[in-house]
């Protein structure tokens, strides 16, 4: 009889560990389905998350490098000359504040009860990681390239830090709300594009700076998400079979 009880416990344990122990992600059918789709796509390298995440940043940074100063079919000098013709006396500081508009959009959507992909703790951590990466990338590249701004104010032109910041924030909005609607991301990227336009109209940056800045901003957010393996603050619940003095039972475990 004892052998039968131990056998039942062994089978019961396997079933519980494979089917009942779960985190909040597995409780949510929508997130589970998304994870299954991602796992399926990761079987082929050109459908992997890393490859897809690198496409847009690589193109934008490549375009930025190819148009530095007087290089390319439509160079940074050509773009500046056209800007000065169209907006000869245009000056504004709206771009100094508009870089944080995507984050304001994220807060507003949460206040309107539009649920993020991640919870508050993990979204906050992703924002912090993104900010660290984008600032480390942009400022290090600025000092390495040492390119003069179009207004000759200093030699920290490439890439545009404002544009990088705006596109990093826009990418976070896109990744957090794209499962609800793609239009949230479209709105955020429109704001980020406006920041790049204002930086050129203010004669603070070349076209190459803005293109590369957008690439570095998107890349920073993508790196933050790709390296965010732990889900802090997630609850894990589990049913564990017990056997004591010949009696079988079940204990419930909730881990924060």
Structure description:
With 256 residues, the chain is mostly helical. It has a domain at 49-226: Vanadium-containing Chloroperoxidase, domain 1. The chain has eleven helices and three strands, in the order αβααααααααααββ. A three-stranded antiparallel β-sheet has the order 1-2-3. α7 packs parallel to α9 (161-177), α9 packs antiparallel against α10 and α10 runs antiparallel to α11. The longest helix has 26 residues, at 120-145. The radius of gyration is 25 Å and the shape is globular.
Q: What string, H for helix and E for strand, traces the elements in order?
A: HEHHHHHHHHHHEE
Instruction: Flag low-confidence runs.
Output: 6-27, 236-241, 252-256
**What structural category arises from helix and sheet content?**
mainly alpha
Give the tally of β-strands. 3
Rg, alpha carbons: 25 Å
Biggest sheet strand line-up = 1-2-3
* Overall pLDDT level: 81
In short:
By secondary structure, the chain is mainly alpha-helical.
Topology:
Blueprint lengths: L1 H18 L2 E2 H4 L1 H13 L7 H18 L9 H11 L7 H5 L2 H11 L8 H26 L15 H17 L4 H20 L5 H20 L9 E9 L2 E9 L1
Helix pairs in contact: 4-11, 7-9, 8-9, 8-11, 9-10, 9-11, 10-11
Features:
256 residues, mainly alpha, Vanadium-containing Chloroperoxidase, domain 1, 11 helices, PAP2/HPO_sf
């Amino acid at each position: 009889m004892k052998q039968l009880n131990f056998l039942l416990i062994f089978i019961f344990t396997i079933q519980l560990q494979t089917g009942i122990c779960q985190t909040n992600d597995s409780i949510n059918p929508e997130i589970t389905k998304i994870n299954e789709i991602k796992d399926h796509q990761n079987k082929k390298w050109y459908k992997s998350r890393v490859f897809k995440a690198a496409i847009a940043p690589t193109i934008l940074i490549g375009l930025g490098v190819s148009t530095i100063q007087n290089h390319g079919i439509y160079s940074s000098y050509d773009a500046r000359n056209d800007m000065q013709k169209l907006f000869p006396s245009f000056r504004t500081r709206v771009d100094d504040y508009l870089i944080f508009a995507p984050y304001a959009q994220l807060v507003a959507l949460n206040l309107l009860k539009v649920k993020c992909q991640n919870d508050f703790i993990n979204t906050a951590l992703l924002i912090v990681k993104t900010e660290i990466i984008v600032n480390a990338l942009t400022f290090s590249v600025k000092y390495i390239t040492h390119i003069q701004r179009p207004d000759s104010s200093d030699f920290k032109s490439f890439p545009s830090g404002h544009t990088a910041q705006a596109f990093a924030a826009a990418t976070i909005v896109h990744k957090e709300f794209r499962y609800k609607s793609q239009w949230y991301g479209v709105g955020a990227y429109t704001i980020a594009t406006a920041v790049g336009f204002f930086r050129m109209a203010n004669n603070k940056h070349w076209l190459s700076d803005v293109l590369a800045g957008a690439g570095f901003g998107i890349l920073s957010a993508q790196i933050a998400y790709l390296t965010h393996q732990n889900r802090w603050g997630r609850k894990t619940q589990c049913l564990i079979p017990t056997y004591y003095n010949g009696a079988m039972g079940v204990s419930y475990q909730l881990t924060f």
